[in-house]
Amino acid sequence: MTDQIAFVRHETLKPSPPPASETGLVKWLRENLFSSIFNTILTILSIYVVFSVASGLFPWIANGIWEAPSLKACQGILEGASGGCFAVLTERWNQLVFGFKYPSDQYWRPTVAFVLLLISVAPVLFSKLPRKLLVLTGLYPFIGFWLIWGGTIAGPILALCGFVAAYYAFQQVEKRISFAVGLLAALVAAIFVWSVGAPAKGFFEGFAALEAVPSRDMGGFMLNIILGTVCVSLSLPIGILLALGRQSNMPIIKGICVVFIEFIRGVPLITLLFVANVVLAYFLPPGTNFDLILRVIIMITLFSSAYIAEVIRGGLAALPVGQYEAAGSLGLDYAQSMRLIILPQALKISIPGIVNVSVGLFKDTTLVSVISMFDLVGMIRGPIVSSTEWNGIYWELFGFASILFFIICYGISQYSQWLERQLETDHK
Question: Among 189-198, 263-272, 283-292, 364-373, whose mean pLDDT is lowest?
Fold first, then answer.
């Protein structure tokens, strides 16, 4: 019987390699670009459009002139050839970044402030960093203000002492009485420290003093960074309070929040900027000097906080009722349940919407150019294009501005997607 068996294999066969069409680049192209006749047509059309744009744009960039004193000199060097006059970027770099009035010998101050900004926000954005770095995060608003605006450091120190006193008062009162009373105690403590310390500030006028730079001298992309950073940082907590107030069972608080949100959402931002620039001065006492940047920050913050409030309200509405009931079953009061259970989940759901509002807010900072503030776009539309040397140049300047805003907005978008992946708790 065994003589009829020709061969018996004692080991399994090695797996054969997959076909070339089922692996590597070929597979990716077949599945993503040429999966059907319709997708193949779209791919070919897209390649044609990209090639057409690139073939026209590449010579313009490759033949670009980076060293020239004026647009006329650039045109003379090109001699009719296609090429960009990028010399305007090198010639007016400082104005594009810092404005045309900020002292040139003080450019190091906003540069250092920007570097410290990146360092101070890192522990907030990335939880794996040492928590001790949060001390720098708390100190940065006062250090950054002192570096950019200058003057004595006594003012920022006094402001810091007021916030420290407010935090300590809130911690002590909130534990013993309630959250609302803690907020009131914090406000009283801050006002008390600032009132007592204000007369003594004059004795430290020369202490660690930098050259004072008024707000009207701020400009360039630096102004966009200041407005975007401050307004986003302030609008998020205000938006949370508005969202909670709109869901409150107290009719007065709910009514105020609803009226505020709906009114702000129904008014264009440019209208609020004109109010900040012109109308608001009529409601101030005679001789009052209310800083223009502060007025603009208030209006942009109120505008964006209304939209963030609606985004967070959507996150709160998306949570099941069981989460609220679970918080109550643990014996937590309203403030504790919101801080420990409800808001962390609602903010996680609201990340895409919050980032969307933040990106839009950062881009909308360019609207300040219509009220004669020389941000990046204002510098391009005003002093640079209006000058005799660079009159008539547009593509290079606005292309540069677009790239700067794209880099920052794209970075924010990528971080939000990374944060969503880090906070995923669903089972796959």
Answer: 283-292
Q: Are 115 and 143 in contact (CB under 8 A)?
A: no
Superfamily of structural domain 217-375: MetI-like (1.10.3720.10)
CA angle 295, 297, 301 (to 5 degrees): 120
Bin 99: left if φ > 0, else alpha if -120 < ψ < 50, else beta: left
Tokens of 290: 């209310």
Rounded to an integer, the average pLDDT of 226-241 is 91
Q: What's the length of the chain?
A: 428
Burial of 402 (0-12, 13-18, 19+ CB in 10 A): exposed
**pLDDT(158) > 90:** no
Contact by Cβ (8 Å): 70, 390: yes
**DSSP letters along 69-133, please?**
SSHHHHHHHHTT----BTHHHHHTHHHHHH-SSS-GGGTHHHHHHHHHHHHHHHHHH-TTS-GGG
Alpha helices in 247-320 (DSSP H): 251-265, 269-277, 292-318
pLDDT band at residue 222, thresholds of 50, 70 and 90?
very high
Q: What is the mean pLDDT of residues 213-229?
A: 90
CB 194 within 8 A of CB 158: yes
Q: Check whether 1 has a pLDDT greater than 60.
A: no
The pLDDT of 279-289, averaged and rounded, is: 66
Angle, helices 220-246/292-318, rounded to nearest 10 degrees: 40
Per-position DSSP letters for 218-251, written without gaps between them: --HHHHHHHHHHHHHHHHHHHHHHHHHHHT-S-H
pLDDT of residue 321 exceeding 90, the answer is no
Q: How many CB atoms lie within 10 A of CB 408?
A: 17
Structure tokens at 48: 């044609």
Distance, CA of 272 to CA of 393 (rounded, Å): 31
pLDDT of residue 3: 58
* Alpha-carbon distances of 346 from 29, 82, 258, 343, rounded to whole Å: 39, 53, 20, 5
What's the CA gap between 66 and 84, in Å, rounded?
Answer: 9
Q: What percent of the chain has pLDDT over 70?
A: 92
